[in-house]
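WARN retry 2 of 3 for item q-0093 after timeout on previous attempt; input resubmitted unchanged.
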Amino acid sequence: MRISVITLFPQMFSSMFNTSIIKRATEKKIMTIDFINLRDFGIGKHKLVDDTPYGGGAGMVLRVDVVQKAIESVKQNGGYEKIILLSAHGKQFNQKIARELSSFSHLIIVCGHYEGFDERIKKYADEELSIGDFIVTGGEIPAMLIIDSVGRLVSGVIKKESLENESFSPHLEYPQYTKPNEYNGQKVPNILLSGNHKKISEWRKEKSISITKKLRPDLIGKG
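OK item q-0093 returned
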């Protein structure tokens, strides 16, 4: 998988993807992540990427011509490709969408900043996504979250069995324990020490469903 991130602040991503699982995936060539500086497509001597909003108002708005040129610079015009605009107007990102995106060969993620996008930019995107009902200063942190969530689902990045029973697949994950088996009066459930793998599997499934019903009943039945 290739992921192209269009951003005004590519330096924000350096530490995030130079560690842990995503770093190993890029070293193994399972994934490639490239960062496109929107400023490189700016207008005039000062490389302007935004301007004041028509009709007045606070802040600056990213220009449609600048963003469109940046998108065109990385489009492959072939393969299984998707262009994502990070926006408060977008569909809320979740594990189901992460799984869908992990099947693409190329994702182009456009990070917003300042007051927002010129509305006409939406014509050049396939989908708008949001990470929640709150506002952040730019799309860089949402992009990091999406890349990490999608990247770990790409075939070969993590062992398949590690993905099968984690949260949102489709329920919240069952409780996990490790040594010591007793701490400050809290004991590990006896079933986990029994060695009966069939019973342990049944217990985990039951706990997974009951925890989901209690904490996230909205997930029940979504599969």
